[in-house]
Write a structure and sequence with these properties.
Layout (H helix, E strand, L loop, with lengths): L13 H11 L5 E2 L14 H4 L19 H12 L10 E4 L2 H12 L5 E6 L4 H8 L3 E9 L3 E3 L1 H7 L4 E7 L11 H13 L3 E5 L27 E6 H4 L8 E6 L2 H18 L4 H12 L1 H22 L7 E2 L7 E5 L6 H12 L1 E2 L1 E2 L10 E5 L4 H17 L2
Parallel strand pairs: 1-12, 3-4, 3-6, 6-7, 7-8
Antiparallel strand pairs: 2-9, 4-5, 8-9, 10-11, 11-14, 13-14
Bound molecules: pyridoxal-5'-phosphate.
The site of pyridoxal-5'-phosphate has 12 residues, from helix 4.
Length: about 400
């Protein structure tokens, strides 16, 4: 009765079972997997968050396949503030970044074609690939005091069926950026296979050192020699995942870009998925993003500082370098699987963390913590995690 693309193992995994049992017994959980910003004690003033949804223009239906012009102009303004002038025609609104991925996969790939995606990275790519009938093939990011793209493996794995190289910038959960020389080589690889770059920049505003390293690339502002789709949205930029607004910026050689835009317009026109109240409110949410971004950056930096204070030299647990985003990775002894570490931390200490394998870390020994939780939750959880790991190492 059902398509094979939905043949997922639907039974709850071991960690969600343990969580459910703990919740059922009314036991407390210190949740360091929490990455929903609306549940982390940030202030969302109602006049800024809800009032913009009430707009009499929403009484009329004015469908536009690329999304309401006023909202696209506001997205253009967001990029203009970063020194990049875009034509609103280059911008397509979607109901989320995930939907933006689907549109771009549909635009570029036939069933069975390949999209190259970083590993470790965001776990949803496999699902997005399966739902759009494309194969998501990993290319490695390697860590040696900082993360780098394994460009040789990427080049070797690309072939005529590779339709795009996906970069997450900064990446979730490694918090690493693609460097300019890496980007240049990726463009060469893409051009030699007539493939595109898909750049997910949802965390672009959460760099720990401001504009930081000049060597980092920003794909929307680069002179693009490859067709490039930059994806982002309000779920991270304005920390409003519930409002459901994402977008795609199309860039690249003019002829290719025009053709991509014309085809994308038909895909978007088929769904017309962004609601009028959300599109009308978007300019205001974007204009007010700095307040929530500051709250988040203050939180993640404070949590990271606390972690560094507690991770004294000589402990069997350390953290990997992180440059931006909402996560940090702990390196723990690979004496047991990362899932065992996560399960034992939950059962014995009531602390919930993600095992590295959720993000396809190639080996054991990594736990992923969200840096968003409130400071007392984060600190209390660390006060349990670190001694627990030390005692069992
Ligand atoms: C790297 C990355 N891309 C995309 C998304 C999803 O964004 P949206 O809520 O706009 O679909 C997430 C959500 O965590 C993410 O981590």
């Amino acid at each position: 009765m059902f398509s094979s693309r939905t043949n997922w193992p639907l039974a709850p995994n071991r960690l969600s079972e343990l969580l459910r049992e703990r919740q059922a017994r009314g036991l407390p959980i210190l949740d360091l997997t929490q990455s929903n910003p609306t549940r982390c004690g940030f202030t969302y003033p109602e006049d800024v968050t809800l009032a913009p949804l009430i707009n009499p223009r929403a009484l009329r239906y004015e469908p536009d396949p690329r999304g309401l012009l006023t909202a696209r102009v506001a997205v253009g303004q967001y990029y203009a503030e970063r020194g990049v002038e875009l034509d609103p025609d280059q911008i397509f609104l979607t109901a989320s970044t995930s939907e933006a991925y689907s549109f771009v996969f549909r635009l570029l790939a036939n069933p069975g074609d390949k999209i190259m995606a970083p590993q470790p990275s965001y776990p949803l790519f496999d699902f997005l690939g399966a739902l759009n009938d494309v194969e998501v093939l990993p290319y490695p990011l390697v860590y040696d005091g900082g993360w780098q793209v394994d460009l040789e493996t990427l080049a070797a794995q690309c072939d005529a069926r590779s339709r795009a190289v996906l970069v997450v910038h900064p990446n979730n959960p490694t918090g690493s950026y693609v460097r300019r020389p890496e980007h240049a080589r990726m463009i060469e690889i893409c051009r030699s296979h007539q493939a595109a770059i898909i750049a997910d920049e949802v965390f672009a505003d959460y760099s720990f050192d401001g504009d930081g390293d000049r060597d980092r690339v920003s794909t929307y502002s680069e002179p693009c020699e490859a067709l490039t789709f930059t994806l982002s949205g309000l779920s991270k930029i304005s920390a409003l995942p519930q409002m459901k607004l994402g977008w795609v910026v199309v860039n690249g050689p003019p002829k290719l870009r025009q053709e991509a835009q014309a085809r994308l317009e038909v895909i978007a026109d088929t769904y017309l998925s962004v609601s009028a109240p959300v599109a009308l409110a978007a300019p205001s949410w974007l204009a007010h993003r700095h307040d929530i971004q500051t709250q988040i950056l203050v939180r993640v930096k404070a949590n990271l500082r606390k972690l560094d204070e507690l991770l004294t030299a000589g402990l069997p647990v350390s953290r990997l370098k992180v440059e931006g985003g909402w996560y940090v990775i702990l390196r723990v002894p690979a004496t047991r699987s990362d899932e065992d570490w996560a399960a034992e931390l939950l059962t014995c200490e009531g602390v919930s963390v993600h095992p590295g394998h959720f993000y396809d870390f190639p080996s054991a020994g990594f736990l992923v913590l969200s840096l968003l939780p409130e400071r007392d939750v984060f600190e209390t959880a660390l006060g349990k995690i670190i001694p627990f790991i030390c005692a069992r190492s």
